[in-house]
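Long-time lurker, first post. I've been practising inverse folding by hand and with some scripts of my own, and I keep getting stuck on stretches where the structure tokens seem ambiguous. Below is the full token string for one chain I'm working on. Before anyone asks, I'm not after the true native sequence, just a reasonable design that respects the backbone. If someone could post their per-position residues I'd love to compare against what I wrote down in my notebook.
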């Protein structure tokens, strides 16, 4: 049975009460990020060498495009909707946090493991064949940057028992408290130059967006068009009168990034996007009753993590091929009319390379999804929390410093690669599981 036929079968089994728009927004948000990454990364040839260009830094007007392509807030918003339903269902059945979170952690981490293994082999092989280590590091870091998001989302999901309880007890006040905390952090960091404190907004901003998912799930979102318009106005004011840059992602040379860590400007953008999305909900839910659109949504959601994790690997492979062919297609200046005209060709190449990667590695994602249908695996809380810490530390360091090492014989930071695997083993799956079981004895 082909992928489309399988997706159509799954789409037909969806219960009528399912909010299909949730799945649509999840797919849309990830695909928008993929397109944004492929557009922003703009390598070009200079003096016979490949320069790692960044479109937002080279063509400033394109920074406005990030208001369309930086849609990670929608993913966290949808996550709040889904997590609220599933956690409430787990509680109603008398389930535990271990039942609920262990399965979620496995479904998110399973697809990451082959990505780490492949790039570990590339890093070691590239070093062994004498490729300049800085080039290997740049390629590995670019390909693995998407994993930072998983670290944040895993932590936000781990806090669902607390955030959901706060929503049930205090409702909208739980959202506004997080907003005020984010404002306080930005004030201390941006206006008072208090160091490090801005990293707290990885929690406050994303948790605030996540709380809005609970509001949506309970039907407590009123006047979404007004919500979106006011949020957009606040964003405009922050950019025009405040110190916040237009770009909603980091730009080389900029003193302030709106995403690393997130600022209240990104929080305002997320609220604007949510207001627009909910305004369009009635129309989109009617459209999603059409079999072709709903089947497409199911198909994309079935491989969404694979697409997200591997799309920059496809990008790197295409760039390497272009470089080996003498820099073909890389001689146009990023942002020039010629450069824009050939974007469809490059995108076709990225898609062509991504498709076999999806075919090869999406089974790991389906393995994780299948885990939720099996018997719950009870994992002691100490192992669950320690495993989460190790996984998130490994993912964060991978995005921040790369798994490729400028020193050593292997050219690989083996300890960074090992962290997620050891963490997965502690949680109850992966190659270190046997060790974890021995620790329990």
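-- Answer (accepted) --
I ran through it position by position. Result:
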């Amino acid at each position: 049975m082909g992928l489309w036929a399988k997706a159509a079968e799954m789409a037909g089994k969806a219960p009528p009460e399912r909010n299909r728009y949730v799945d649509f927004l999840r797919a849309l948000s990830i695909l928008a990020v993929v397109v944004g990454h492929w557009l922003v990364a703009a390598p070009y040839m200079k003096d016979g060498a490949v320069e790692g260009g960044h479109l937002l830094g080279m063509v400033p007007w394109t920074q406005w495009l990030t208001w369309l392509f930086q849609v990670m807030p929608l993913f966290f918003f949808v996550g709040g909707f889904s997590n609220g339903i599933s956690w409430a269902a787990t509680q109603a059945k008398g389930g535990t946090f271990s039942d609920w979170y262990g399965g979620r952690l496995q479904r998110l981490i399973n697809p990451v493991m082959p990505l780490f293994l492949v790039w570990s082999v590339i890093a070691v092989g590239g070093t062994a064949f004498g490729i300049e280590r800085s080039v290997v590091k740049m390629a590995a870091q670019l390909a693995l940057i998407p994993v930072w998001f998983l670290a944040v989302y895993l932590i936000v999901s781990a806090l669902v028992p607390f955030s959901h309880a706060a929503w049930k007890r205090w409702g909208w006040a739980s959202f506004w408290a997080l907003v005020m905390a984010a404002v306080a952090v930005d004030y201390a960091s941006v206006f008072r130059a208090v160091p490090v404190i801005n990293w707290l907004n990885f929690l406050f901003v994303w948790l605030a967006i996540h709380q809005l998912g609970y509001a949506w799930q309970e039907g407590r979102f009123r006047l979404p068009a007004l919500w979106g318009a006011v949020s957009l106005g606040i964003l405009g004011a922050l950019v025009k009168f405040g110190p916040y840059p237009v770009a909603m992602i980091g730009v080389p040379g900029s003193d302030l990034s709106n995403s690393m860590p997130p600022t209240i400007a990104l929080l305002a953008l997320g609220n604007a996007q949510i207001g627009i999305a909910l305004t369009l909900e009635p129309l989109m839910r009617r459209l999603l009753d059409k079999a072709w659109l709903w089947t497409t949504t199911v198909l994309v959601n079935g491989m969404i993590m694979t697409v997200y994790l591997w799309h920059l690997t496809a990008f790197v492979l295409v760039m390497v091929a272009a470089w080996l062919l003498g820099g073909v297609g890389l001689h146009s200046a990023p942002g020039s009319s010629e450069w824009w005209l050939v974007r469809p060709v490059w995108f076709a190449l990225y898609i062509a390379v991504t498709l076999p990667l999806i075919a090869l590695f999406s089974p790991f994602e389906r393995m994780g999804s299948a885990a939720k249908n099996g018997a719950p695996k009870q994992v002691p809380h100490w192992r669950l929390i320690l495993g989460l810490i190790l996984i998130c530390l490994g993912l964060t360091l991978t995005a921040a410093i790369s798994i490729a090492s400028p020193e050593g014989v292997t050219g690989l930071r083996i300890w960074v690669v090992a962290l997620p695997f050891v963490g997965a083993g502690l949680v109850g799956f992966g190659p270190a599981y046997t060790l974890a079981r021995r620790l329990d004895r």
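A couple of notes from the structure itself: The mean pLDDT is 90. The radius of gyration is 22 Å. Happy to go over any region you disagree with.
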